[in-house]
Request: fold
Amino acid sequence: MTLNLNNFPPATIPDHAEALRSDVKAFIAEQLAGVPPHIRARTWSGFDANFSRAMARRGWIGLTVPVEYGGAGLDAFARFVLVEELLAAGAPVAAHWIGDRQSAPLLLHYGTEAQRRDLLPRICNGELFFCIGMSEPNSGSDLASVRTRAERVAGGWLLNGQKIWTTYAHKSHYMIALVRTSGTSDDRQKGLSQFLIDLSLPGITVRPIMIGTGDTDFNEVFFEDVLLPDDALVGTEGNGWAQVNAELAFERSGPERIYSSLVLLDLWARLLGDTPDPLDAGRLGRFVARLAPLREMSVAMTALLAKGEHPITEAALFKDMGTEIEQQIPVEIADAVAQRLDGPHDPELLQTLAYLMQLNHVFSLRGGTREILRGMIARGLGLR
Amino acid sequence: MSDDTDTALLVEGFRRQLAALVTPAVIREIEDGASPQSLWASLDETGFVDAMLPESLDGAGLDLAQAFPLVLAAGEHAVPLPFAETMVARAMLAQHNVLVPAGAAIVLAGRSALIPCAGVAGHALLDRDGQLVLVACSAAGSDLFRTRSATGIHVGETLATPAASDDGVLLASAAVAAALMAGAMTRVMEMTLSHASDRQQFGRPLGKFQAIQQQLAVLAEQVLSAQVAARTAFAGRGFDATRVAAAKCRANEAATSVCNIAHAIHGAIGATAEFDLQLYTRRIKQWQLAFGSESYWAERLGRARIAARADTTADFLRLHLATGSA
Ligand SMILES: Cc1cc2nc3c(=O)[nH]c(=O)nc-3n(C[C@H](O)[C@H](O)[C@H](O)COP(=O)(O)OP(=O)(O)OC[C@H]3O[C@@H](n4cnc5c(N)ncnc54)[C@H](O)[C@@H]3O)c2cc1C
Reply:
């Protein structure tokens, strides 16, 4: 068996990283003063370029990017502390989120020196926002079947195709996309490459898609004979699949996979007062009990990532469990609230709850669905 | 004992001895009423019962975190005697300079619907009137799971009252139970994985069916999170109510899906007395009923969350439930 407690060696956040925490708390308290919980509940879906720029001024975007590329040169633990505080408070981090979490590490690892010099400093100072171009209309879970194509032409690459569900493409400067550079979708993982796409280029159309809540966070993105320069290729031609997979450990191992409903949980907990009835105390306790080992796992994976390892199966396991709790928190709080027909029902609690009740079903979709993650775990267990 | 590799070697040695001593046949004999004496004597002889005593008392000086893998291993092997309980009880008593009668098997008898292993132990550690108490005891009531447990104990002579204790024994009982459960669930996972690759239906091993793979993934998730939660309960210098609450709550919740999935994947054969799976799942269910259910611990944990007045639940997790905060 290849999955056991050794996959999550006990890890502790070192003091130098913890030292950051009080500054971050003070910054958030100042920035988010007066922002009500139903807005904070958007957390990493909340887009606020001004907030991101304020973070950049503190040097908190690209925390793990080396100083020579404009970053803070700190380690993954420092980023964990920063991100944990931002998410727990419900800070609107979406603008810089993708660039900070995965595009910058990707460029650092696979990018050319010129790409690093050009892009990383601008990610770190809050100038450039990124989005992820993986999904297509006919390629969701079956990501290797993508059809968007880049063909070599004189002076660069000619890009044609379509991406979809691209979060904040309409407010981003760049997309990092997985596209086919050779063969057909029957070739699966072979022949895929990653490209850095400047979204202001001619031939690109971004069309927002509204969801049931009325929000328009994600988009369709169309590419029609878009001429990409030579240096738009990220990493090695044909190595896109491996590169994307390396990104996924970053995408699935962080506290954003357990804290998406935390603002609601904490608002509800506060309203319980000092002497909650046994049923409510029990509901709260169960969430704490489920969250506690998951936070431990996230810290353990942070230590592994810091050592250059790729805990991909571990991250799948963590994300599948974490998003289940994130989904369950609004469900059980709704149960608790509506158990009392005559209230009192705090209006802010109701609004925050309603927002998350309408959104929680996507928590297990974004970043890979349950069935796909469980398939990865099964592979880790030697079943596939 | 401080060196990690030394501890790993020690644990490896212990596992080898358990595999040799505690075979399914031996477990069944004891369940059927055989005297525990010879197995207990062999376990005692391994010296591991004293592993947590200081080196000055001929122990190995293991702290809780170092002893945790021994408790897991005891759970994995379904040791039918109170090995882990005695190891922890001896350490608790030694802290107050109480030395235990040689060869005594001690159960941790925190408040509970049943006391595992009470039918094969002559001593118990209790919380009584605010005191930590060591007593002689014998089983009372029924053995509900055929594990030599008992629904109560006859309390005999008081042997020591070394310290104040409000619910220290309950915490130790629940922490040890959570770790034993995590260990037993590990074995259940191994057995289920190997059954899924051996058993064929529709011309393929069960493990090749996606529906089965998905269930096994859930099984692994539940086992891993119960293990991590139990490990956290063993991270500090002593058993802390908040960590123990999270560990026992998580172990109990995980146990339900682990047992259901494991038995579902085994089919009818898994329910039979002849097949080993039930040796482990029967114990897991016994521990679910012992030393507080998930609701009991969840309520305590919820109250602790509120009493802590943490700004956010993330703060509470970090300050009270992280390995590093022990
Ligand atoms: C809020 C949100 C934000 C997103 N942001 C982005 C983004 O920024 N960039 C981006 O590229 N994508 C993004 N996505 C897309 C996301 O990655 C996909 O939704 C996801 O990969 C699933 O693809 P799909 O929606 O096409 O569903 P499908 O792949 O059609 O799956 C539908 C259902 O079938 C199941 N299924 C599929 N294949 C199998 C199989 N082999 N076995 C068993 N079950 C199977 C799935 O688990 C799922 O339950 C976002 C999605 C959401 C909801």
User: Anything to note?
Assistant: Chain A has a mean pLDDT of 96. The domain at 5-128 of chain A is CATH 1.10.540.10 (Butyryl-Coa Dehydrogenase, subunit A; domain 1).
